[in-house]
Sequence to fold (408 residues):
Amino acid sequence: MNFPFFIAQRLGKNTLRGSFSAIVTTIAIAGIAIGVFIMLIAFAILEGFQGKIKDKLFSFGGHIIVTQRGLKDSYQDAPLSTKTHLKQDFKKIEPIEHLQVYAHQAGVLKTDSEVMGVILKGVGEDFHRESFAQNMKAGKFVRPTEAGERDVVISQKIATKLRLKVGDAVNMFFIQQNADPRFRKLTVSGIYETGMEEFDERIIFGHLRMVQRLKNWADTLVGGYEIRVKRFEKLDSVEVYKVAEHLSYEMRAETITQRFMGIFDWLRLLGGNVQIFLTLILIVASVNIISILLILIMERVQMIGVLKALGATNAQIRTIFIIKGMLLILKGMAWGNVLGLGFCALQYYFPFIPLDADNYYMHTVPIAWNVYAILGVNVLVFGVVSLVLLLPTLAISRIQPIKAIRFD
Fold:
């Protein structure tokens, strides 16, 4: 067996419970465990939070919105033809995963006792219903068939304010420029909720063909395209430019990160705060393990003197204490992983920590499982904290055998 590893394994084995060495060892293990525990939870919550917010935004459209050039108001559409190269051949364009069309129309919902201004978003058969399903609270989404032309899906906030439920009829008036107001009697087919005021307080979903008829558009005209790309992480650096190559002169492309710049800046700020927080935890863990190892070295001065007298080199003795420190780190990491992943599993399967939906866009703390993040935390902790073990072991080279054997 390797000599340093053999000695390191036996350091502290015969230490009595309650002794100073036992307390110091326990503190070292607990310090590493708490650090790993906090890191795993922080990453799981951060990624879960970012993922949930992005999914909510993406479910309303896509990563890139294509409209008529020069149009400033995102809810006031100018007609865009579907007979374009981008729409007809989007499946052949490498970055694009999905393309869907839409059209907006402003209007007023009216019940017997309430009135509310909203934006009707008309969607067609190509709308990505699977991604929007996460937002549905009751009922069903707008049917893509002609029978569903009078269906609407409203938000929970709108339903509460207007006292509507699934299956209720509601009147909607559409005010148009240079034309008399138009009226439609609609049926609430479903209710959604995102927790995001930008959508919940103003957006309802309806049939694309109804909006086209209200605007007196042919069925080949829409308000814009919503595009999903295959690699969102490269949206602003690569994907949007590849899509822009296929736009005609009257089209403009806007990314979702530009349209909702405030939200994405906030998410990036959260990520930066977590990185600072984790750096501080690593520093504390490193200082903790340095202090613990120095104490262990001071307690074993006589043993170090005897080993040197028997011919052990400074490098061998330093290796003994480095291995001892690594064993403490591994034990602490094991406890940290058990507690951290266990806590995340409880929150994931049995959400018990609530959130204020008005401020955080969701009702409970979200958890995301990222194997790479979990491995990264463990590798980072073990690598950084193990590296700092070299510092306290430098003191071993200063210990002289004669003085050490007589040390009391």
Remarks:
- The CA atoms of residues 305 and 401 lie 4 Å apart.
